[in-house]
Model the fold of this input.
Amino acid sequence: MTTPYLDRHNDYLQFYVRPEDGVYLLTDDGYVITDLQQSGCNLDSARRRQLLMSTVQGFGVKMVDDALQVHASPGNFSIRKHDLVQAMLAVNDMFYLASPMVASLFYEDVIAWLDLHEIRYTPRVKFTGKTGYDHLFDFVIPKSRTQPERIVKTINRPDRDTAQSLAFSWIDTKEVRPPDSRAYAFLNDSMHAVTSGVLDALRSYDVHPLLWSMREDVRQELAA
Done:
């Protein structure tokens, strides 16, 4: 099955479906992990392997011999398809440009910055949206006396697809959260500038884009 999302090579992401014991097996057949490894991304360290597993498990996806896969019934096929595609996008984005020489990943950099400034958060929070689809966010900063709940997603490789994916997640989620909840996107601009199209797309769906190079500008807002 071909999805409308593009991978790093501007090819449409695909996955495979086959009947298996009365249900369906959906799998990327190892494409995402193999492609990252062949591009020089080292996933062998214990830290990166743990982060990889927590990412896919957050979507209810299993990893079998580097293949991402889920089982689906006719009744939940669309939801499980959504989970698999979101896991493929998340893994690809999280480890993009994570060469063996990179000391840390963008997600880890954001954690270190939040901890440094004592910004309280809950990591890896999944919400079920209005449509019944599950959406995994990287951090939730709880409500305080002066600020509402803040839901945060990190995007290592900001582009049209990652922006659209977050926009859909937030549109589907915000109606089941408190009415004053806010969504933020930490955008990694340390390697490449973030285009105005990505920023405008996020803002149009009420997601606040936060450039990593300007993170100190929002420190008080997130810490409050």
